[in-house]
Write a structure and sequence with these properties.
The complex is a heterodimer of chains A (about 200) and B (about 475). Chain A is of the alpha/beta class. Chain A has one domain: Aconitase, domain 4, CATH 3.20.19.10. Chain A has eight helices and seven strands, in the order βααβαβαβαβββααα. In chain A, strand 3, helix 4 and strand 4 form a beta-alpha-beta unit. By secondary structure, chain B is an alpha/beta fold. Chain B contains 15 helices and 19 strands. In chain B, the strands form five sheets. Chain B has a five-stranded parallel β-sheet, sandwiched between helices. Classes of the chains: A alpha/beta (about 200), B alpha/beta (about 475). At the A-B interface, helix 4, helix 7 and helix 8 of A face helix 2, helix 3, helix 5 and helix 11 of B. Bound molecules: iron/sulfur cluster. The site of iron/sulfur cluster has 14 residues of chain B, from helix 4.
Chain lengths: ~200, ~475
C-alpha cells in the first residue's frame, strides 16, 4: 500500500444518499481476476451509454471536474456488497479521498486497506461542500491526514475523526498481514488451547 | 452480563491492545470465485502459506450459468475466473465443491446445508450476505478481498468491537406474512443505514417460532439495514437442523457441542445500544418500490407520494426512483404489472421457500406476459424439490427450472433483466441495475413472487385461492 500523504485536489460532487457498490462498479466487471484496471468501469452505468460514449449529464463527465481526486457524496456511501473492486475502481480512476456523512461498513474498511481515505463529515458541512463545488470554479480541498483537517482556500473548514491505528497505518503504508503475523505465537497458542 | 455477541467475541479474542483493533480468531472461512483470486495472488506474491486450509471451504456460485453448465461457458472471462479458483484450491489445499458435486450451491446455502455452520463460530466470506449464518448464533460477516487474504495468511482478522442492537419481534405472524416480510418490515423501520456499526440480535416469540430457513432469510438481509451482522440465539430448532449434517459433530462430540451451544444466549439485563420492537400482527406482505431496500410498502398500500419524503434530499431521491422504476406517486401496488419473476438467491431459495411457493402455484399457469424462473439454492435442494414433486408443479405452470447458483440475484451470468423490464424478485437487493442495466426490481417473499407470476401483477397473497 502507498503511504497516504496530504492530498490537495479538485473536488467532484456526487450528491445522493445510499450510493451502493453496484453503482460504483457494476457486476459485469467482477469476473476479472486482476486487482488493477477497474478505473475504466467506475460508475459505468451512470457514466457511459451502452455504446461506451459518455453521458453528458453525469457529473464526472463535466469538464469542470476533470481530474478531481476528491469525491463528495451523500450518506451511506458504499453500502451493499463486499466487493473490494469498489475502492480499487475509485483509486484507479484517480480518487484518493471520499467525503460523506456516513459509509457502508465493509466499504469503509476496504478503502482504508487500499489507501483510499473515507472522511466522515457532518451532513451540514457536506451540504456546504457540495454547494461550493457547484458555485466556485476549480473548488479544491486539502486533506491533511496527519492533522485530520479539511481545508479550502479560506483555511481549515473541518476536522475529522479517524481511528488512530488506521491513521498510523495509512501514514506509514503498513501491511496489515505483516502486523498480525507479529502475534503468530499468540495465534498458535490460541489454536492449541481452543482445540482448533 | 454479556450479550450473545459479546460472548462470541470474547471466546475468539487472540490479542487485544489499547488503541489498536483486536485480533479475532476465525473458525470457518468460505470462499467463492469472485472475491478470492486477488487474495490468492497476494499470498503468492508475498510467499505466504494459507494457514488453515482445513478451515477453508469453497464452492462456485456467482458467475456460473444455471442451464447447460457442463458446456463451455459463453463468457470466457467468467470461465477463467472459475478455472482460477480450481487451480488456487488445488495449489493451497482447499476443499472445493465444484459444479459436478451435489453439494454445490450458493455459498450461504451450502455452508449450513453441509453442517459447516455451527452456533458460536466466527465465520467470514468475501460476500456481504455472510450475515445469513448468524441464524445459527454464529458471528458471521462479509469481508473484502484484502481481508480474505489476511484470513488466508493468519486465520485471524483485525476487528473493532461493534455496538449491540436488539430487535424484538413479538406475536404470531398473520397468514401470508413470511420471514421475508419481517426483515423487509424491519429495514423499512430502521432504514438502509440504521444498523451501521452494530450487530443486530433478533429476538422475541416470532423469531423463536421461525424455522431455520426463516431465520436465515431474516439474518441474510441484516446487511441491507447496514448492520455488520445479524444473530439469533441457538435453540432446539437450531440443534435439530445441524444434527446429522455431514460436518456436524458426532457421538460424544455432539453432546459436548450442544451443552456448549446452550450457553450461547444473551444474559438477562445486558446492555443494548439500540432496541427496536416490532409487532408481528401489524406486518403485511411487503413490496419494495424504490432502489434501496428500505423503500418498501405494504401490499395494500400505494407507491408513496412526495408528502412522505422526510427532507429535501429525500424528495430528490423519490423523484429519481419514480423515474428509474417507471412508477407514479400514489399508484396502487396491485396495479403494477411485472415482466419477470425470480425465485432464488441466498435469501429465499431453500426447500421451505420452494414448498411455500409451490403451494401458491399448484394448479395455475403463469401469466403469458411473464417469464418466470426458479433457481434452487443448491443442487441438493434441487434434487429434493424434484423428489417432493415441487419441480413438476413449477414446470407445469410454465416456470423455468434451473441449476443452483446466484443467477439473477446479481445477474453476473446470462440470467439478466433487459432495460425497463420489471421483476418480482425474492432476492435481497433492488439497487439500480442490480439485475441488469435499466432493470426494475421489486423485492418480495417467495409466495408473493409466485402469485405475481401467475396474475401478471402484484396481488395480496393473503387472499389467494389455493387449488389443493
Ligand atoms: S445469491 Fe445474491 S446475494 Fe446471495 S451470495 Fe449470490 S449474489 Fe450474493
Amino acid at each position: 500500500m502507498d503511504k497516504f500523504e496530504t492530498i490537495k485536489g479538485l473536488v467532484a460532487p456526487l450528491f445522493q444518499a445510499n450510493i451502493d457498490t453496484d453503482q460504483i462498479i457494476p457486476k459485469q466487471f467482477l469476473t476479472r481476476i486482476e486487482r488493477t484496471g477497474y478505473g475504466a468501469f467506475l460508475f459505468n452505468d451512470w457514466r457511459l451509454n451502452s455504446d461506451g460514449s459518455p453521458k453528458p449529464n453525469f457529473v464526472l463527465n463535466d469538464q469542470r471536474y476533470a481530474g478531481a481526486s476528491i469525491l463528495v457524496a451523500g450518506a451511506n456511501f458504499g453500502c451493499g456488497s463486499s466487493r473490494e473492486h469498489a475502492p480499487w475502481s475509485l483509486l484507479d480512476y484517480g480518487f484518493r479521498v471520499v467525503i460523506a456523512p456516513s459509509f457502508g461498513d465493509i466499504f469503509f474498511n476496504n478503502s482504508l486497506k487500499n489507501g483510499l481515505l473515507p472522511v466522515r463529515l457532518d451532513e451540514k458541512i457536506v451540504n456546504r461542500l457540495v454547494e461550493d463545488t457547484q458555485t466556485i470554479d476549480g473548488y479544491s480541498l486539502t486533506i491533511d491526514l496527519e492533522n485530520k483537517t479539511v481545508a479550502d482556500a479560506s483555511g481549515v473548514i473541518a476536522t475529522f475523526e479517524i481511528d488512530e491505528f488506521r491513521r498510523y497505518c495509512l501514514l506509514n503504508g503498513l501491511d496489515d498481514i505483516g502486523l498480525t503475523l507479529q502475534h503468530e505465537e499468540k495465534i498458535t497458542a490460541f489454536e492449541s488451547k481452543a482445540g482448533r | 452480563m454479556k450479550t450473545l455477541y459479546d460472548k462470541i467475541w470474547d471466546r475468539h479474542l487472540v490479542h487485544a491492545e489499547v488503541g489498536k483493533p483486536s485480533l479475532l480468531y476465525i473458525d470457518l472461512h468460505l470462499i467463492h470465485e469472485v472475491t478470492s483470486p486477488q487474495a490468492f495472488e497476494g499470498l503468492r506474491l508475498a510467499g505466504r502459506k494459507l494457514r488453515r486450509p482445513d478451515l477453508t471451504f469453497g464452492t462456485i456460485d456467482h458467475a456460473i450459468p444455471t442451464v447447460n453448465r457442463n458446456l463451455p461457458f459463453k463468457d470466457p472471462i467468467a470461465a477463467q475466473q472459475v478455472a482460477t479458483l480450481r487451480e488456487n484450491c488445488r495449489e493451497f489445499g482447499v476443499k472445493l465443491y465444484d459444479l459436478d458435486r451435489i453439494e454445490q450451491g450458493i455459498i450461504h446455502v451450502f455452508g449450513p446445508e453441509q453442517g459447516l455452520t455451527h452456533p458460536g463460530m466466527t465465520i467470514v466470506c468475501g460476500d456481504s450476505h455472510t450475515s445469513t449464518h448468524g441464524a445459527f448464533g454464529a458471528l458471521a460477516f462479509g469481508i473484502g478481498t484484502s481481508e480474505v487474504e489476511h484470513v488466508f495468511a493468519t486465520q485471524c482478522l483485525q476487528q473493532d468491537r461493534a455496538k449491540n442492537f436488539r430487535i424484538n419481534v413479538e406475536g404470531e405472524l398473520p397468514f401470508g406474512v413470511t420471514s421475508k416480510d419481517i426483515i423487509l418490515g424491519i429495514i423499512n423501520e430502521i432504514g438502509a443505514n440504521g444498523g451501521v456499526g452494530h450487530v443486530i440480535e433478533y429476538a422475541g416469540s416470532t423469531i423463536r417460532d421461525l424455522s431455520m430457513e426463516g431465520r436465515m432469510t431474516v439474518c441474510n438481509m441484516s446487511i441491507e439495514g447496514g448492520a455488520k451482522a445479524g444473530l439469533i440465539a441457538p435453540d432446539d430448532t437450531t440443534f435439530e437442523y445441524v444434527s446429522g449434517k455431514p460436518f456436524a459433530p458426532k457421538g460424544e462430540d455432539w453432546e459436548r457441542a450442544v451443552a456448549n451451544w446452550k450457553t450461547l444466549t444473551t444474559d438477562d439485563g445486558s446492555h443494548f445500544d439500540k432496541i427496536v420492537d416490532i409487532d408481528a400482527a401489524a406486518l403485511e406482505p411487503f413490496v419494495t418500490w424504490g432502489t434501496s431496500p428500505d423503500m418498501s410498502v405494504k401490499v395494500s398500500d400505494n407507491v408513496p407520494d412526495l408528502s412522505h419524503a422526510r427532507d429535501e434530499n429525500e424528495v430528490r431521491s423519490f423523484e429519481r426512483m419514480y423515474q428509474y422504476m417507471g412508477l407514479e406517486p400514489s399508484q396502487p401496488i396491485d396495479k403494477i404489472n411485472i415482466d419477470r419473476a425470480f425465485i432464488g438467491s441466498c435469501t429465499n431459495s431453500r426447500i421451505e421457500d420452494l414448498r411455500d411457493a409451490a403451494k401458491v402455484v399448484k394448479g395455475y399457469n403463469i401469466s403469458n406476459r411473464v417469464n418466470a424462473m426458479v433457481v434452487p439454492g443448491s443442487m441438493q435442494i434441487k434434487r429434493q424439490a424434484e423428489e417432493e414433486g415441487l419441480a413438476r408443479i413449477f414446470i407445469d405452470a410454465g416456470f423455468e427450472w434451473r441449476d443452483a447458483g446466484c443467477s439473477m440475484c446479481l445477474a453476473m451470468n446470462e440470467d439478466i433483466l433487459q432495460p425497463g423490464e420489471r421483476c418480482a424478485s425474492t432476492s435481497n437487493r433492488n439497487f439500480e441495475g442490480r439485475q441488469g442495466r435499466g432493470g426494475r426490481t421489486h423485492l418480495v417473499s417467495p409466495i408473493m413472487a409466485a402469485a405475481a407470476a401467475i396474475t401478471g401483477h402484484f396481488v395480496d397473497v393473503r387472499n389467494w385461492k389455493f387449488k389443493d
